[in-house]
Amino acid sequence: MPTAPSWDGLAFRACALRRDNARLRKAEHPPNTVRFAQVHPTGDLTIMHVHLAFAAAFFAFPSLLQSTIAPPSGADGATPAGVATVAPPDAPTAPGEPAHDLSVQISAYVRRVYQDRAGYLWFGTNSDGVCRYDGKSLVYFGAKDGFAGDAVRGIVQTGDGAMWFATDNGVCRYHDGKFATYTEADGLSSNNTWSMMLDRGGTLWIGTIGGVCRYVDAAKEEARREKESGTQNSKRFESFPIPRSGIEKPESRFDPKLVWSMYEDRDGHIWFGTDGDGARRFDGKTFATYTTNDGLGGNQVWCISGDRQGRIWLGGEAGGVTCFDGKTFRNFRAKDGLGNDRVYTMLEDKSGNLWFSTLGDGVSRYDGKSFTVYRQLGGLHGTHVQSILEDTHGTLWFGCSGGLFRFDGTSFVNVTRKGPWQ
Length: 422
What we know:
Elements: E1 11-14, H1 22-25, E2 33-39, E3 45-51, H2 52-60, H3 63-68, E4 110-115, E5 121-125, E6 130-133, E7 138-141, E8 152-157, E9 163-167, E10 170-175, E11 178-182, E12 193-198, E13 204-208, E14 211-215, H4 218-229, E15 237-240, E16 259-264, E17 270-274, E18 279-282, E19 287-290, E20 301-306, E21 312-316, E22 321-324, E23 329-332, E24 343-348, E25 354-358, E26 363-366, E27 371-374, E28 385-390, E29 396-400, E30 403-407, E31 412-415
Antiparallel strand pairs: 1-2, 2-3, 4-5, 5-6, 6-7, 8-9, 9-10, 10-11, 12-13, 13-14, 14-15, 16-17, 17-18, 18-19, 20-21, 21-22, 22-23, 24-25, 25-26, 26-27, 28-29, 29-30, 30-31
């Protein structure tokens, strides 16, 4: 069974919610209740129904909210019945500045930013599907277009030009103007997908709440299997089992089988970051396991990346960021200058600077010697940065709670549906 998410630092608000929110309408609103919004640091926001008699006590004694209501958690990490995921209320801004208007933003949460080979920018959102900016206009793709999910957690372009999306309702492929959806019926370990990676050999890897799987080129694979065994297999994905670390009671948000992140290093080894079960490195034959017992900062590994020196960086919940040089681990935390100890994503820019998202504290830039912390993005405080991209022109883009931002070298600019894009 998955462990309930930590409630430390979660924001709760009783908020007025728009009647026309399609996702909210899916959850019934029982009589004599009030809706409470729970904002998760990773971008998920859920709504709970609380009886008015208890709600009055929560307003008088806020601490009761944390100790009385059990966190919502489905068996597979999905939102349970009667709880709807919706857009968060207006985000906090600096004192004296106007409220940050979410209605003009690309989305209340931008979870992924990706640039395709044509130079188009793709934005995966937490509740509005995916949208694309082609340099002239912004186009949204949703259920009416054949796009399967609401939350987009991974974006990759394969060699044939197709765009792939890891969503909360399976994997979507976009090619020649059409969407195709792949689910558990096609071999996915779970429809609740969280990460996606394309290795140098062209293999597409999917991290789900139920483990890892790989995309199979159906035509080639079926021809091979038929030749070898005389049978065919219509499954498009195949499971890739990852051994457990041996941690007796992993502290997971959802499930220790969940893979938050994947990365291929310069040697072609594949790294996997799990939900409370540490990290794995696969060299093509065997697995190596890394946990806090080996020097890793934390066992919940949200992101993995490498730098130009070949070092591996691993960030996650509570442990800051860890640098692994192949032999030893070095941990960086708030006491070393990092914004805080919760690192959700990272990027090495073309100048060699490392950017780390510290949830609730903007981003931190590391130049190899010291950290520079940017706690405000375009005047927005308490920002949860979900994705960082450097485009072909060297512009840095940040997808986060509150919308989309770009860095002009000195300050952060909020990019809304109307821009400014440059």
